[in-house]
Amino acid sequence: xxxxxxxxxxxxTRRRTVGVVIAAVLALVGGLLLAYPDRAGAAADxxxxxxxxxxxxxxxSSDLGPQNxxxxxxxTRWASVEGKDPQWLSVxxxxxxxxxxxxLNWEDAYAKxxxxxxxxxxxxxxxxxxxxxxxxxxxxxxxxxxxxxxxxVYGTARATAYGYSLYEFEVYGxxxxxxxxxxxxTVVAAGDIAAQCTASDSDCAxxxxxxxxxxxxxxxxxxxxxxxxxxxxxxxxxxxxxxTWGAFKAKTRPVPGNHETYDPAGxxxxxxxxxxxxxxxxxKTYYSYDEGNWHFIAxxxxxFDKTAQIDWLKADLAKNSKACIAAYWHHPLYSSGGHGNxxxxxxxxxILYGAKADLVLNGHDHHYERFAPQNPDxxxxxxxxxxxxxxMGGAEPYPIExxxxxxxxxxxxxxGVLKMDFTDSGYSWNYLGTDGKTKDTSPKYxxx
Length: 448
Hints:
The protein is an alpha+beta fold. It is built from seven helices and 23 strands. The N and C termini lie far apart (52 Å).
């Protein structure tokens, strides 16, 4: 215990077991409430984090996911991967809130040092409290003042050789009544991007698609695999991709393609070294995040045969609270290009279709193609998933070979990017060529 407190900003109340201390504290609290009656209301602020959507930097296993810390069950817990700092656990309160108290119930794997932070958008964080000598048990921070929608515990030093683990992460305060953060936003997407060439080569396409993507200035960028050719070495990432698309790496949400697995240093070695936590925000090659009324799922189609990713996907969809769902990975289930249909994606399509997902984006074949909404078996249906093949980011184009059922538009030989426009209830897009002209405009779709 730390009788003098170790926090830089505030000192958490520690759990005590000695009766005389409890009596003294109760007497003191009673006196304070009499002297300062306005604090009586603050002490009664309700729990506002129960059952809310949660994310984490990593999970030790699918059974120890972030949602366990907000389920009200003291027997379940979240645990990060072992032996790595920093790690974080975040909760989306669903609306802007005035936060007055946070209570953390640590498992044996607790944080020696951590921060409590709040954010309006889940990107820019403000520190509410700072612990530098934690000793586990229950930390109660009863006098916080913060306003935001997202709250997180950011662990910077583990107390044990294991990871971080919380039975419960409770947030108290009052919700402001504002609806969840929604609204329109734009995303730029492309796959199969950086060949081993530079802007000095007039035939080099990825500098041109990067210039177009940068000009659009979207909320963020999606890359659908094969970001760097041929073997995705870290030296090649630095020599080619980084000189063009790397200008907005911090705003990029990538997934790996098959070329990222060819690295002689090891599968995904260069990819991981270049993108770092951007590609592994939850400690895996697959992850999810929210924007507005949309839930985005980034998947690794190189490992669709691994049960860990499939189990994670099912759990992620089960806890999703957003009305619209988009997923992206490298290998398309349906394609009219040289690679053609890839059945490795069918089980994932079935899971997404069952969850009423709306949109899937892929690369792999080096052309642009859009499909009518269809089910996993390729039948056009009103509640189907819309698929886009977008492998036109800079790699050598592939010809259209065998047109698939439900394919509505195909363009090969023209490099460009997808300009995706999302609303609270739907989406549409334009395929823009590097000359800045619109090559295709989609219908406007409504989320299921």
